[in-house]
Amino acid sequence: MFKKLCICFSMLALPASAQDKAFTLDAPETLIETGLLKHILPRFSLKTGIRITVQSGDGDARFGPAGTPVFRNGDNVWFFDAPSEPDIEAFLTWLQSDVGKRTIDTFAPDGTALFSSDVSVKATVKTAILSGDKAIGEKVSLSRCGRCHVINETNRMNAIGSSPSFALLRSFSDWQERFETFFLLKPHPAFTQVEDVTEPFAEHLPSPIAPVEVTLEEIEAITAYVGSIAPADLGAPIKSQ
Question: Cβ-count burial of 141 within 10 angstroms (0-12 exposed, 13-18 middle, 19+ buried)?
């Protein structure tokens, strides 16, 4: 008799335990209307036994603009924001698992996938905007910079060997910034004057060599010219043995 009573109490306790494995999820109408939640939530519940009720307004967890990124729809990334609770954490873990990601990626009601589990940040490559006159830039480069740097084959034998060539400088990732602000980079401030930009040399600190005098327009032209030349081929990195 006692054994039967224990079994009965255990059976009565099961529904209450199942009800504990649940939480409410706040999701905007724009997401609900896509049908994604109807696609992924039943699959999660079937796997874990955790029931999720979608509602509009305050929920135990929410999809929105803040939290952990979990999927994207075009350029719009959706985030999952929730407190640290076991059932809710289980859902986040599932969303980030291989099974969860495949479930998101395979949602294609019209044959075309609407969402992607790839929420990695895409690097944006900044395109150099070069508005100067390249022909003028080559001429100014040879006349102002050619006494130290190899500009091209024209002055290859007349430059200073210790100064980097324009082709080598062009291979640097920040080459454009370097050329646009070269007059601020050592050793150039000691002998360079930019019209209406730099201060005249102090009387007690004259230029050690014949001053290099340029205008901002000429700097733009030099930069445009450098942008047109091929970066130096430095070969493959040397591998340590």
Answer: buried
- As a whole-number percent, the residues of the chain with pLDDT over 70 amount to 85
Q: What is the pLDDT of residues 118-166, one digit of tens each?
A: 988 654 445 557 778 999 999 999 999 999 999 999 999 988 888 999 9
Closest CA to 109 of 32, 35, 37, 31: 35
